[in-house]
Amino acid sequence: MTFNQVEVPVIQRNDPLASITAAAEQYNNWGRWGEGDVLGTLNFIDAGKRIEAAALVTSGEAFSLSQPFDTNGPQKGWRRRTNPVHTMTDTGVDAERGNQGFPHGFGGADDVIAMPLQCSTQWDGLGHIFDRGKAWNGRAAGDVVTSEGDLVTGIETAAAKVVTRGVLLDVGRVLGTGGELPDGFAITPEHLEQTIQAQGASSQVRRGDIVIIRTGQYSRVRRDGWGDYAGGSAPGLSFTTASWLHESEIAGIATDTWGFEVRPNEFEGAFQPLHQIAIPNLGLFLGEMWDPDALAEACALDGRYDFMLTAAPLPITGAVGSPVNPIAVR
Fold first, then answer.
1. The pLDDT value given to residue 5
2. How many angstroms separate the CA atoms of 34 and 314, rounded?
3. Average pLDDT score over the chain
């Protein structure tokens, strides 16, 4: 795919709703896979795509693309999003003192974790975002997600689907200073294509791929502290990439930032308008708070930017998002 194949929407800064409405009409996959579809762009991943991905494994190197899940994470409580709380329910102390009630010196440790499903590295499911009362595939939002969860497109529907070719676009390394884009940097289709050209043939994006965007923001906060990583200013995708996301026919896209798209958003008074197009209208899976840094170093070293990626969500019935430990294998 090349940039000149797509038409870039104009941002009407004085009329955000007009821009959102136009993009939702122009970049829309409703009905593409039938009225009953629950997978959206994951339909682009088929058996052939998985075979293609497996053939990319030559060195056997494996990279986890997950940030830690612990109380030191980035969340600050916005909309009740907190960091994980990890508690031990059985410990080595209990085993040593023989108060666990097991025979013959048997002992063990157990633990429990309490956390929002989108507190660290995660997928946004198709029930996560609505556009003017509509969920993915044109369904009424209230018919999809109720107090009982996502009754139609719960994240469990994707549990066995996310194994495919991954492509790293290290925009931070290509366009940034010291490998990092500044907060507020809006990544346009031109920037994506410039990165592909700079990285070479292995970063050409194809149907069914999952694209991982490295902005370098996570590198910065890991060095300098979280600050306003959760919800504050950040580099990210411009609203104008809606065309690129649609025409590229990718299965999903993930970034190393909290919110995927550029923050502050490009419209006055708007909130995450690219989400409003990508999830309910395109049916596109979005990943946030991924850690591509070690993978990026390996890719830069040998010039190979594609790999096999497995990034299965936990099959949590009715969930609209899920923690994930993505693994890139080269």
1. 45
2. 25
3. 95
Phi then psi dihedrals of residue 107, to 5 deg? -145, 165
Half-sphere exposure of 329 (CA within 13 A, CB side): 16
The DSSP element (H or E) to which 265 belongs, if any, is none
Specify the pairing of strand 163-169 against strand 210-213: parallel
Crossing angle of the two packed helices 217-224 and 293-302, in degrees rounded to 10: 120
Beta bridge partners of 314: none
d(CA 13, CA 173): 29
C-alpha closest to that of 261 among 172, 203, 184: 184
Residues 15, 21, 22, 28: is their CA dihedral positive or negative?
positive
Burial tier of 108 (Cβ tally within 10 Å: 0-12, 13-18, 19+): exposed
* CA neighbor of 189 nearest in space, from 253, 251, 127, 239: 239
Q: How far apart are CA 260 and CA 246, in angstroms?
A: 16
**Amino acid at site 235:** P
> 30, 41 in Cβ contact below 8 A?
no
- pLDDT digits 0-9 by tens, 62-99: 999 999 999 999 999 888 899 999 999 999 999 999 99
pLDDT for res 1: 46
DSSP code string of 30-63: TTTT-TT---GGGGG--HHHHHHHHTT-SS--EE
Q: 150-177: buried (b, 16+ CB within 10 Å) or exposed (e) per residue?
A: bebbbbbbbeebbbbbbbbbbbbbbbbe
Q: Which ranges of the chain have pLDDT less than 70?
A: 1-10
Cβ-contact 160, 43 below 8 angstroms: no
* pLDDT single digits (tens) 239-286: 999 999 999 999 999 999 999 999 999 998 899 999 999 999 999 999
The predicted structure's pLDDT at residue 3:
43
Helices (H), the chain: 16-26, 47-54, 92-96, 141-144, 171-175, 189-199, 217-224, 242-248, 273-277, 293-302
